[in-house]
Amino acid sequence: MLTLALVSLVFTGNACAKDRFNESIQEGDGYQINTIVIDVAEVFVSADSCVFIVYDEGNEIENKMISSDQTITFTAEGETIEVTLLSVSEGILPQATVSITITHDDDDVYLKQEVKGGHEKATYPGTPSLEITKEVSSYTVDQGEVVTIKVTARNKGDGKATEVRFSDPKPTGFILQEILLEETGQMTIDKYETRTIFLYKLQANEAGTFEFQPTRASYSNEADMDFPEAVSNIPVITVTDTGKNARKVAELEFSTSIESSSVKRNDEVEVVINIKNQGDSSANGVVLNIHLPEEVEYKGSNSNIEIINGMPKAYLETFGLNQEKEIKFVIKPTELGTYTITTDYSYQYEDGVSPDRQEVTGEFTTSTIDVARGDLDSVIEQPWYVIAIPLLIIVAIAGWIFHRSRQYRF
Fold it and tell me: Where is the signal peptide (predicted)?
């Protein structure tokens, strides 16, 4: 049991504060300040002393035995913490009475609590991570055509994103036609949640190539810690002139699908790249360079893929109007974690106006693949002797049975 009594709260200036507490903590319990946990590891009543072990997010940073009236001083996360042993006493479990002094900037201490069971039972504020995706219904349109813009946000972190605010500037050269969805104001996005934030339609008003401004979001976690601003991708839309001198363009649209987004380590999974030419000109010399993480192995393909300098590459000599094609390949994740596969592409086309071929480059990324432990991982990860000793016992018994059977035969 931990009994907490606030003795005094002293402010020094406008930016610095000092908290002082007296506490009685049983052996094996601890006290948490932000990510710091002070464990009362052992209490020696007869020696009037105690062992304190200090952890920062589970990592040991201090281990010391002190006697009554002695002090441990350490710094963590910009805070100076002093732990003084006042006395020790018997009980159901031995306990230590301590004085803890925390010197910190205002608002830096966001968590102070008893931790029954010490650092092993401590919990910490999660870390949110927002990923913003800005999609457009078509990357090439004629003047006067309408495109649909969709902005989604996914929290890939292990903590809730709080105080989330989005900004989404509209591009020049377009007229806002209709707002289908618009999440405004402050919001919260739970961990692993995906949410549509904006959905609207724009009419292309001018010919040319237009680079959209990214959607941005500011956010914090449940401990009111601010995180770097999240920024979306930057779509580029080409608006063609509808007059007689309108240029033609090959517009290859790439999308991906994965057989399963959650697999076990060393399981094989199929990845499919879908290609469609939605433009009005054929594409030539289409090259796909597939970048696999080091922890993911390429296992083969029945499509047009070759391994060049250790990288899977696909080459399509021509890609006609309205043509569609699937490129399939198999991968095997070998380590736990979350992975994506990024592919960069390039192709050329004739626009019917310029004497030179036009070249297009870009990249696209699959959705995430979450890799969990495999069925045999727990066996493989055992120390050799855990497997070897039972095998030796089995071999010894089999040998004894064989020996006895030969004795009975004679």
Answer: none
CA-to-CA distance for 392 and 402, rounded, in angstroms? Answer: 15
pLDDT tens for the chain, 410 residues: list them: 333 333 333 323 334 556 667 878 999 999 988 888 999 999 999 999 999 999 988 889 889 999 999 999 988 767 788 899 999 999 889 999 998 888 766 556 777 788 899 888 887 778 899 999 999 999 999 988 999 999 999 999 988 999 999 999 999 889 999 999 998 889 999 999 999 999 999 999 888 999 999 999 999 988 788 899 999 999 999 998 776 556 789 999 999 999 988 999 999 999 999 999 999 899 999 999 999 999 999 999 887 899 999 899 999 999 998 899 999 999 999 999 999 999 999 999 998 777 889 999 999 999 999 999 876 565 555 565 556 677 777 877 777 776 666 665 55
The closest alpha carbon to 330, from 315, 344, 341, 346, belongs to: 341
Distance, CA of 377 to CA of 264 (rounded, Å): 10
**What predicted TM-score, i.e. pTM, was given to this entire model?**
0.43
Sign of CA dihedral 155, 157, 159, 164: negative
Contact between 24 and 4 under an 8 Å Cβ cutoff? The reply is no
**Which residues pair with residue 152 across a beta bridge?**
133, 196
